[in-house]
Specification:
The chain has 19 helices and 30 strands. It has 638 residues and is of the alpha/beta class.
Length: 638
């Protein structure tokens, strides 16, 4: 994985010297990124104060104290005394300052038909946000109330989000692939007064009655006063039902703005709570210093509003007047060139995708990717969500980015609304690397005993100091919050990832520690095995589970998808893994399958594969994109 010579180096690209992070370093007298990071964790209050001022956050009332950790790491408070509002910083001030005619949003519908495409200027966005805020206020929504949304990445999604922020209420996005029970659990937990939805969810040319699911869920939650669907007559009537609200609610810095649910391995969903100031500080820092976001330069992260990256992208990009591409539907429908046409037509500057999505592109059209499309506007690629394998990383770098665009790989989580590890435009890049700890993030890798792990060894990823966007406990559940992140080591955030810091300085995340497989006492992460499998020329994708075994405790069972027109036998692939990882870690079985089961955001469902393969109940399958893939795996086990 690591090499002596980076594949991408900032010295070879003049624009990096004019990047936001380069300007910040010069302004504060730092000569290297390592120096800056050391200062940013030595005095996080200094750094965050400087970063918030550099990014241009507007306060209705300035803060008096940046950081108050007198009650301990888990209960740190930020920007005390400050009064601020996300909607003011992301919408209102841009119109006030004369930027109303600039494009804020591009919408790409599932059909890919020109007549279904839309866009919004900042002035149009503000007008709709003001109307929506007025209608919500008429319904009794105000500071501290919750507004839930069960819809894809649409223009109306952003309008509702910003209108909710404008009123000082809490926006609660729900993944639009969930079924009725999952929606009920989340809406009931947050006590939402209003549930927004779409009547019909379109994917691959087919329609799902999402509105019916939303209404059925709302009927079982007492707090919901009304369900409003964007694609029906209700929406326009709703917008016209009350006078507009033109001014933002002055909200305290620590006032919750965003509740995002993240599923645990057991029990009910966890509601992570993020504040107005925390959202602005963290997304502002990351979009500015990691992704070099600029006004007028289209930014496209293939994601969903129900996952962290949706709100992260919307808040961070609108803050900088960076147009967002809202992509509704599948990337390879109506054909495998759809996504490349979108990048070319909109002259996208920053494009970001998960490793799983990149592997999908690699399989399509024989791995030709965007050949024949002009992607010269691209300057930055991005990625998050899961570990890379070197083959896919190189394909993304060479075929999509033309070997000239850095892959800004980041790793964090919903509970952070941001990243622990991150590349920047000043990071020399090795394949699959996450660069280094993000600015202001005091990151380490611990052994089982809680000591710093030696370079080159695998350990637990931890954070030793708080950050402003970290969740303010879990909604209604302080005990679970403390048990999840702080029960392993006092005042240290345990993130639940395996990571490694190599001798050359590169950092890697190797998967979730709760995914670890133990074969005859030898621990291995699924991603390690999968990376070896996908290095075989015939293998496009792989998933690895640890199946119970009477002799060894667990054995490796692998599932692979082959590239078009290429073949490999299970025996050949077992030998391939054994040759690279050693015979003790050779898979017991390799199954060739047509597809791996995934969520709609592209994550491989290893836990669900394990349950189905071992004859356990599959659990909630509402977020599964391709249930037929699970049925095929179930058949293999019988």
């Amino acid at each position: 994985m690591p090499q002596n010579t980076p594949l991408w180096h900032p010295d070879d690209h003049a624009w990096t010297r004019d990047s936001h992070i380069a300007h910040f370093m010069r302004a504060h007298g730092f000569y290297s990124q390592d120096e800056l990071h050391a200062a940013s964790v030595r005095d996080t209050a200094w750094f965050l104060d400087a970063a918030v001022k550099d990014s241009g956050v507007e306060w209705f009332k300035p803060y008096t104290t940046v950081k108050d950790d007198s009650r301990g790491f888990p209960w740190t408070r930020w920007f005390e005394g400050g009064v601020v509002n996300i909607a003011h910083n992301c919408v209102d001030r841009h119109v006030r300052d004369g930027h109303g005619d600039e494009i804020a949003l591009f919408y790409e519908a599932d059909s890919d038909a020109p007549e279904d495409r839309r866009q919004r200027t900042f002035a149009e966005l503000k007008a709709a946000v003001d109307d929506c805020a007025g209608a919500l206020r008429m319904m009794g929504v105000g500071p501290g109330d919750s507004v839930a949304l069960y819809a894809p990445m649409r223009i109306e999604t952003v309008e509702v989000m910003m209108a909710t922020f404008k009123l000082g209420a809490r926006f609660v996005p729900i993944f639009c692939g969930y079924g009725e029970q999952a929606v009920i659990e989340r809406v009931e937990s947050c006590g939402a007064k209003v549930l927004f939805a779409v009547e019909h969810l379109h994917r691959r040319g087919k329609s799902v009655a999402a509105g019916a699911i939303a209404r059925a869920a709302a009927a079982r939650v007492d707090s919901v006063k009304r369900v409003i669907c964007f694609d029906g007559p209700d929406w326009m009537r709703f917008l016209r039902s009350a006078p507009s609200v033109t001014e933002c609610e002055p909200t305290a810095a620590e006032e919750p703005a965003l509740i995002i649910y993240t599923s645990g391995t057991t029990g009910r969903p966890k509601g992570t709570v993020h504040t107005h100031a925390g959202c602005l500080a963290q997304t502002g820092k990351e979009l500015r210093y990691a992704f070099n976001a600029q006004p007028g330069e289209p930014f496209f992260w293939f994601t969903d509003i129900g996952w962290m990256m949706g709100p992260w992208e919307i808040i961070g990009c609108l803050f900088y007047r960076t147009p967002i591409v809202l992509f509704d539907g599948a990337p390879d429908f109506p054909d495998s060139d759809r996504l490349w046409r979108t990048l070319e037509r909109l002259k996208v500057v920053t494009f970001c995708a998960s490793p799983t999505l990149v592997r999908l592109f690699m399989r399509a059209t024989g791995g030709l990717g965007p050949r024949g499309h002009d992607l010269s506007a691209l300057r930055v690629l991005g990625s998050t969500g899961e570990p890379w394998d070197a083959t896919s990383w190189r394909w993304y770098f060479e075929n999509v980015g033309g070997g000239r665009c850095p892959i800004i790989n980041i790793s964090g989580g919903t509970e952070l609304l941001g990243c622990l590890l991150s590349c920047t435009p000043l990071t020399p890049l090795q394949p699959c690397s996450l660069g280094a700890p993000a600015l202001g993030m005091d990151i380490d890798i611990f052994t089982e005993e809680g000591a710093p792990a030696p370079r080159g060894t695998v350990g637990h990823l931890v954070c030793k100091q708080p950050a402003p966007s970290m969740t303010k406990s879990f909604l209604h559940d302080d005990k679970r919050y403390l048990e999840t992140y702080f029960s392993r080591w006092p005042d240290v955030w345990y993130h639940g990832d395996w990571a490694r810091h190599d001798e050359d300085g590169s950092w890697y995340v190797l998967g979730r520690s709760d995914d670890t497989i133990k074969v005859a006492g030898k621990r291995v992460g699924p991603s390690e095995v999968e990376s070896v499998l996908t290095s075989h020329p015939a293998v496009s994708e792989a998933a690895t589970i640890g199946a119970p075994d009477d002799l060894k405790g667990q054995v490796l069972v692998c599932f692979v998808v082959l590239r078009p027109n290429l073949n490999a036998t299970p025996a050949e692939l077992i030998a391939h893994v054994a040759a690279q990882m050693g015979k003790p870690l050779a898979p017991k079985t390799v199954h060739v399958v047509a597809a791996l089961p995934k969520t709609r955001s592209g994550k491989i469902l290893r836990g669900t594969i394990l349950r189905v393969y071992t004859g356990q109940p599959a659990g909630d399958l509402t977020s599964v994109e391709n249930p037929a893939a699970l049925e095929a795996i179930k058949a293999l086990a019988s």
